[in-house]
Amino acid sequence: MVKTKSAKIGDWVVVFICLILIFVCLLPVLTILARSLSSADALIKNEVLLWPKGLNFDAYTTVLGDSKYTWSLAWTAILTVICTIWSLFMTILCAYPLIYDNLKGKKFFVALILFTMYFNAGTIPMYLLLKELHLLNNPLVLIIPNCISVFYVIILRSFLYTIPESLRESAEIDGAGPLRVLFNVYLPLSTPVLATLALFYAVGRWNGFSDALMYMNDRKYYPIQLLLYNILNSINSIEVATQEGFSTPGLSETIKAATVMFATVPILFVYPWLQRYFISGVTLGAVKG
Amino acid sequence: MSTSAMNWNKTLSYLRRYWVLYAMLILPIAFFITFRYIPMHYIQIAFKEYSIVQSPWEMKWADNNGFEYFIQAFSNRDFIYALRNTLMLNFLDLIFGFPAPIILALILNELVFKRFKRFTQTVVYLPHFLSWVIISGMALQLLAPTNGLINILLNRMGFDSIPFLNDPVYWVGTYVVLGIWQSVGWNTIIYLAAITGINPELYEAASVDGAGRFRKIWHVTLPGLRPTIIVLLILSLGQILSSEFDRPYALSNKLVTDVSNVISIFVYNYGIRGLQFSLSTAVGLFQSVVCVIFLFAANALAKRFGERGIW
């Protein structure tokens, strides 16, 4: 189809609008990056805009030299890996049996699981239960109580449903049991959706802080986001220096910017790799949900 | 006799074949029962006098036929504020945040350069993956009164600083805008998927009839998106009294608590920090029940207007 001149101009107007949107999306990240790389002096004089002034890496070395911060980064990384593996394992265990239409009691199990999406007991009952189970202040509290997301179970199950049943039946005729079918047929075909869910679980854990805020008192097990929250929100920087590390009093804006960058960078690195997978995964859950 | 024996044999062979599936379900079901159903028995304490040494079944009923703590909640100024703030922030999110991804999806759909479209999508999805603590850190660097980037620029152009984060009214605006910034790209995914499902012949027919870009959007794309929009609108309406925790907690500061304290934060402050378990459980229960009612009501409403609804 031949495009008219005005339609072509319209195409470029759309491109221009998108360029502005891209800039707006990246603006906060660019600001933080520029500030973390600038000298504290230039920042105080309000000279830094989107390009670092007095380029140096002092803020980063200061943050990396702080044992509490680096420990928290390492601990959150470990926690994220454990959580992701455990959550994925549990999600597969939960979703796979429920695609067998002749499984007796299937309706009951599905109802049991779906009900929790619409009604949950609430913050305090959960808190009291964890207290009863002696999970408060236990690092396990950051892994177990929210390890399965019903929504992700639905996404995985919808995806498994799209795999033709004939594949399963032919494997069953060859004498394969449900476990073999899972490992030889379903899992190899579901890598895109599994990668998507792994990304969601991992990002959720990396970004989460409310569970630690509510259930943990032991600062040693604070995930990075909670530590970052405390760093950013303590108005008295001496207080930060003594409580959260950073022996130099007067936490400068550059260091604050660098701490934010450190918490962001892992996501910026993982995200583009998994990006191509997740769109198919998300829409699947949405359409069939 | 023989039929029951046959049934028994059938059951046995069924179990021999599928017991693995039940075994697989043990852990997830145990998870749901332990961490989603067992906590429900603590809901009783909303109607009872909490005691640390008794189980919820043994605790004494609260005054006023057990509704003492609901009465207390509604005569508590903090709760009334939390209720108002929750409704206000969710309502503003609905008005400004709901149409935003639809508009963005329409814009993205008009992009004819495929690679540039992919790149744009990648960039606009990114904020969804940042935590609210990170976003609040970024907001400080961008919007702080003296040294935030935006205010530096305003000052250089001769304007006064704007208290984006410290003034309650501006804070509400910042909260809504940051919410859109974080979620708008991600929420386009579902609309873009729905757009790909629209029959291309409709566009061709519209072109033949001489429809331009905007007419095609209005007469083809938007009607094609209608079912998706309705379903998502129902879900958002159902969420009008729900409250996130991370977003208001991370963005809030001492100067704006009058508008930033929502129900989830009230429950945290009164329950976990203040140890008033009965009162905060009552508030949480009130919220959950109203949410379920709203969801059903919104769904019924959509069905009345001839839409599919979510069930």
A few lines on this structure:
The complex is a heterodimer of chains A (289) and B (311). Chain A has 289 residues and is mainly α.
Reconstruct the topology from this structure:
The complex is a heterodimer of chains A (289) and B (311).
Chain A: H1 5-36, H2 40-44, H3 58-64, H4 67-95, H5 106-118, H6 123-132, H7 150-162, H8 165-173, H9 178-189, H10 191-207, H11 210-215, H12 224-233, H13 237-244, H14 253-288
Helix pairs in contact in A: 1-14, 3-14, 4-7, 4-10, 7-14, 8-9, 10-14, 12-14
Chain B: H1 2-37, H2 68-74, H3 77-97, H4 99-110, H5 114-125, H6 132-143, H7 149-156, H8 168-196, H9 200-208, H10 213-238, H11 246-251, H12 257-260, H13 263-273, H14 277-304
Helix pairs in contact in B: 2-14, 3-8, 3-13, 4-8, 5-8, 8-10, 9-10, 10-14, 13-14
Model description:
- The complex is a heterodimer of chains A (289) and B (311).
- By secondary structure, chain A is mainly α.
- Chain A has 2 domains: 5-44; 58-288, MetI-like (MetI-like fold), CATH 1.10.3720.
- Chain A contains 14 helices and no strands.
- Chain B has 311 residues and is mainly α.
- The longest helix of chain B is centred in the N-terminal third of the chain and has 36 residues, at 2-37.
- Chain B has 2 domains: 2-46, no CATH class; 64-304, MetI-like (MetI-like fold, Orthogonal Bundle).
- Classes of the chains: A mainly alpha (289), B mainly alpha (311).
- Chains A and B meet through helix 1, helix 4, helix 5, helix 6 and helix 10 of A and helix 1, helix 4, helix 5, helix 6 and helix 7 of B.
Measured between the Cα atoms of the first and last residue of chain A, the distance is: 38 Å
CATH topology of the largest domain in chain B: MetI-like fold
Distance between the termini of chain B: 44 Å
Kindly provide the name of the CATH class of the largest domain in chain A: Mainly Alpha
What kind of sheet is the major sheet of chain A?
none
**Structural classification of chain A:** mainly alpha
Task: List the chains of the largest interface with their residue counts.
Answer: A-B, 89 and 87 residues
The value of Rg of chain B in angstroms is: 26 Å
Unreliable stretches of chain B, pLDDT < 50, 5 or more residues? none
Identify low-pLDDT runs of chain A: 235-241
Total strands of chain B: the figure is 0
CATH architecture designation of the largest domain in chain B: Orthogonal Bundle
What number of domains of chain B?
2
